Amino acid sequence: MAQIVLETNMKRPSIIKMFWEKNKFAWLFILPWFVGITGLGLIPMIASLYLSFTDYNMFDSPGWVAAANYTNLFEDTRYIQAVKVTLTYVAVGVPLQLLVSLSFAMILNQGIRGLSLYRAVYYIPSLLGGSVAIAILWRQVFGRDGLFNEFLELFGIVGKSWISDPQYALFTLIALKLWQFGSPMVIFLAGLRQIPKELYEASAIDGANKAQILFKITLPLLTPVIFFNVVMQMIAAFQAFTPAYVIGGGSGGALDSILFYTLYLYMKAFQHFEMGYASAMAWLLLLLISAVTALLFWTSRKWVYYEN
Amino acid sequence: MNIQPSVTKWLRISVIILMGAALMYPLLWMLSSSFKPNAIIFQKLGLWPTGFTLSNYAKGWVGLSGISFSTFYVNTFIVVGFAILGNIITCSMTAFAFARMDFTFKRVFFAAMMVTIMLPYHVTLIPQYIIFNSIDWINTYYPLIVPKFLATDAFFIFLMVQFIRGIPHELDQAAIMDGCNPIQTFVRIILPLLQPALVTAAIFTFIWTWNDFFSQLIYISNPKLFTVALGLRMFLDNQGASEWGAMFAMSIVSLIPILVFFTFFQRLIIEGVSTTGLKG
Question: Which chain regions cross the lipid bilayer (chain B) (predicted)?
């Protein structure tokens, strides 16, 4: 007893030692990650929040401008245009892409021979779609002498350069997103396989028709996967950059018709070096994405089915 | 009785095949165009090249201002190689600590890590650029590689945490009984068992890094250091409409490594996407 009391009396260094003994290996293992998340994550985040209230331009030291960057953004017609373009791209592209991918997941999920081949073929566009090469291809497919116009010619329609037409340029990019429906489709396919077979057997015995099975069993049980795909595709679509950059020649296209948010941010930050202004844009993008995600999570309580 | 199902079945199969063909057509068109003489690329819709030539490839490969696509290729493989190495080592270390060890701040750290998965990288982009610029890392590969050695691709950490949680605890407990310290347990027991997750991480790091354009565009402006993506972009800017054949040829060349990768690891890639939602 006396010994123990004695020991606890000299405890100070020993608590530190115990603390060290408990943590030394784990902290060693997470050290690279910790350096990364503080040095390249947390500190830059705080720094960019600070910069967004300054006029920093890479050359002069940052001067405090309070909320001027934010108020200026809402009067910047190019910024408003970028927001419009991006919201259109997200609001049209994501639902269309998910609708097509869900439909084809259902078509493919009916016990078809050679499923893995079709799945692979459908998936290839998702694999390549983000690259510069595909953006170059797309520019040509929807160019004046492109593949799309040659296809229209078969029906006697004389096309134009869809890429340089401000009315249609954005739709060529939405088409590029649609072309990549394979990746959410693969996720839907995996989700469809998770639905217990017994439910279908039971409903067949009860004499349910196809529409009833679709709306009462398949879709409700698939809602968690639908939700997952909506969130992930939405976040990715807000950040799309490469196709707009390559197809628009780095400028935003005719009349800024494909001036994506990230493209305008890139121009402000790395062509005009308006780092403060671009930081404000980055924070508004984060707020925008968070708001839409939060909204989706809020609505999810109404339509996403969870087992428990 | 029997006619109805077989009609829908054939209808279904034709829809599937038609869609597959429509998806592949632009790619095949680019492939066949890359073998056509420049003058006739945009004259025929057909896939079969009427005048077959390899000159587009020869012309394209030479590249621009004395820098050929061989250089772009080697550069990209250097970046990709180090990115894979960094991700595999540091993400697995971090995942091991989160999955198997108890330490102070674990819950806070884990939550922070999960947040970074969803965070758009634009909020850290500008200060990161300022940091890398201030230590003279612009026009080096360090800004593309060093973050991977700091486990910044948090998604892979999460993937590996999930995988390690599936490995029976008895295995590392036995190792600890035999006197292994955590480092030995990690290297001898966990790492070998973690191999499938490591392969998945390596494959997706390859694809993402190969397709990446944004960070390369920002950090690399010296043509000698250009990656394939940057080389293609430079080619497009300089040759523009005049050399579409060569442009297409080099686009095809830039896609080949990914397609080869896909043929070899198809099952793993599709599984990775369908079970974890990794984006392709």
Answer: 12-31, 72-96, 108-132, 144-164, 185-210, 248-270
Whole-model pTM: value is: 0.92
Judge whether A10 lies within some domain: no
Cβ–Cβ under 8 Å, residues A123 and A183 = yes
Task: Write out the residue range of the structural domain in which residue A83 sits.
Answer: 68-131+173-303
- Consecutive 10-residue runs of chain B (280 residues): their mean pLDDT? 71 94 94 82 61 85 87 97 98 96 94 92 95 96 97 94 92 90 93 93 94 95 95 85 84 95 89 73
Total tally of structural domains belonging to chain A = 1
Cβ pair A136:B13 closer than 8 A: no
Q: Which of A22, A40, A145 should we substitute to test contact with B (largest number of B Cβ atoms within 10 Å)?
A: A40
Long-range pairs of A214-223 with CB within 8 A, sequence gap ≥ 24: A218/A106, A218/A192, A220/A305, A221/A194, A221/A195, A221/A305, A222/A102, A222/A188, A222/A191, A222/A192, A222/A195, A223/A303, A223/A304, A223/A305
Closest-CA residue to B279 (of A247, A93, A263, A130) = A130
For residues A192 and A222, is the Cβ–Cβ distance under 8 A? yes
Contact (CB, 8 A) for B14 and B236: no
**Domain annotation for chain B: domains and CATH numbers:** 61-276 (1.10.3720.10)
Contact residues, A window 97-156, toward B, CB-based 8 Å cutoff: 104, 107-108, 110, 112, 116, 118-128, 130-134, 136-138, 140-141, 145-147, 150-151, 153-154
pLDDT digits (tens, 9 = 90+) for B217-226: 999 999 999 9
A155-191 tens-digit pLDDT: 888 888 899 899 999 999 999 999 999 999 999 999 9
Report the complex ipTM. 0.91
Whether A46 is covered by a domain: the verdict is no
